[in-house]
Structures are given as C-alpha cells and as structure tokens.
User: What shape does this take?
Amino acid sequence: MFNLLKLSKVKRTKKVLEQKYLEANENEQSLSTVNTMTEFDMKTASSLLPVMTGEEECTKKLIDALEFYSQNIKKEHESLLISFVLKTRISRHAKLRLASNYDTSADLIKDMKNNLLTKQSATALQLELLQSRQGSQSIEEFGKKLEDLFVELTISQADGKEDAYKMFRPVNEKLAIQRFTEGLRNGRLSTILTARDYSELKDVIRAAKDEERAHQGHSTSAETVFAAQHRGRHRNRLRGIRYLLGLITEGAQEVLLTIREDVDYHQGVKNFSKFIVLRVRLALYFRENYATVYLLLERACDVVERH
Assistant: This one.
C-alpha cells in the first residue's frame, strides 16, 4: 500500500515538472519573438525600401520590402514606417491614388496593390499562356516567359486571397508545364519531357536545357562527314543552276531584242509601246513560272551530277 502511494506521488510530481517545463519553453519562445522585433531605423529603411520610379517592377519591389520590414519592427514604430513611405518613397502621381495617412502598414500595402499595380485580365493571360510557342527563343527565354505568365495568371485569379492563390497555383503550373513541353520546336525533346511527367515548371525547364546540351555534345563524326558531303553536292548544284539561269537570261535578252527589231521594222517607232507590253508580259511569265523553272533546273542538275 505504501509503495502504491509513493508511486502515485512520483507520477504527480513528474507531471507537474513537465507542465512547468512546457510553460517555460513557451515563455522563452515568446521572449525570443519579442527580442527579434526591432525599432524603426531610418538608415535601414532607406536602404531596404526603393523610391518609386514609375516602373511597375519598382513598385512591386517597394511593396514586397514594405511587407517584409513591417513584419519585423515593433508595433509602436509602425506609424513611423508608414509616414516614411508616404513622404519619401511614393511618387507625386502615386500619392494622388493613396490616402494621406493609414492606421496600419497592412492597410497601406493593400491600397498600394489595388491602386498602383496594373490589374491584368486573367482571361487574356490564360490565352497568351495557351498560345505560347518557343519559336526563335532559347529554351531559357521560353521557360522564363511561361514562368512569368503562370505567376501573373495565378495572382490575377487569386485577387489577393491566400486560399485562392494556393488553389490556383498548382493548376496553373501544370498548365504551364504542358504548354512548355508542347510548345518546344524540337519534337524529339518535347516527347521525352512529356513522358517524364514533371510537377514543377523549373524542373522541366532545367531538364530541357540538359537534354539540349547532351544532344549537342553527342554529334558523331559520321554526321559531320555527311554534312560536308551534302554541302559539296549543294555547291555543285548551285553552280549548275547559276549556269542554266544564265542561259535563260541570255535567251530572254535575245527574245526581247528580236521583238524590238520586229516592232521597229514593221510598225515603226510610234508603236514602240507594244514592245513595252510584250516585255512586261515576258517578265510576268518568268515570274509566275519561276518555281516550275527552278524545279526543272534542280532535276537537270541531278542529271548532270550523275553523268
């Protein structure tokens, strides 16, 4: 019986000690949080918060910096931060869109986002994203464009709501990944990346760049020899085409000379306009049938090469 009472007392003591330890730990964390909060410092604010230049990118940086700094200063110094931003960091044009004073930095930040940043249409951004193709851009440039579009689209759809942002972000990123892989000009690379099923855009962009470098590095000597032979055949073909085109030009000049002599002899100088008409018709004939003439010349060159 005595042993049971003693054991019960030990358990109660242990429970009390654990409770006090938890309370002490919470107090320590609370004090640590308070100690990390700093006073408003003019020098820090000047270096951290950029002055508005009228460019939207600069305004975004100011809002982000203000958001960060306001979370790390003491509550009683928040009014100094607000006053500093309104009087030294906002342009005259921007001041017309904002209130003269704010109770909290959160209110100021909200107004800056609503009144100083351009609101882009979610529909237009989504359409641009879906129609994007690599074209003449590098893989890095194409990837950067899609990253920007996907971020802007998510921000536009979320409309400042954190929950909406978390919901739209993965959906839009998946859409951007699909557009990136399908929009690549290299079909082989597009097929490889699609099969891997990436979940993050940055990963598929990095993989595309790695694949491109690997493919460029594995060019074989056989491919080099083939390219050299192809260039040689192409040069021979061009020489033949130039020669035959020269013959056609000479023939055309002879035709024109014959027409002119005929018109001068039979009709006289007063009907020389007919010669102009015939000349134009001849020029139009060669222009309209240029593609056909070119193909015939190519075939002729092939025959010349074989013999």
Remarks:
- The chain has three domains: 42-116, 122-217, 221-306.
- The mean pLDDT is 74.
- The radius of gyration is 38 Å.
- The chain is about 80% helix and 0% strand.
